[in-house]
Amino acid sequence: MRVRRIAKSISEFLLETVGEAVAEVILTLLACALLVGLALIVYLSWSFSPRLTMAGAGLLSLFLAHGAWRKFRDPAKGRGHRGLAAATTAGFTLTAATAVFLLLYGAGCGCT
Q1: Any residues with CB less than 8 A from the CB of 36 and at least 6 apart, and which?
Q2: In the chain, which end has fewer C-beta atoms inside a 10 angstrom radius, N or C?
Q3: What is the pTM of this model?
């Protein structure tokens, strides 16, 4: 009985370790693909029109700044996020989560 319990706990440990290693590899590959995709978008956009690229970057920055402002300011009582405020807050949150993901897993990517 005792040998079976020890063997079972060892197999569970090995399975968990292998699962974490596989998940780490998958997340790193996903981060590398995302970085390559973003770099390709910037390159193609810049080669098409540098002025339009800068204008788009400015509008995106304004959009994200408004979302950050709405996210971190003191909310007024009885007022929820509606329309543009909800979209900018969601955009900021999604961008922040993507940035954290890329910092955690994209740093190990050999493509940077």
Answers
A1: 111
A2: N
A3: 0.65
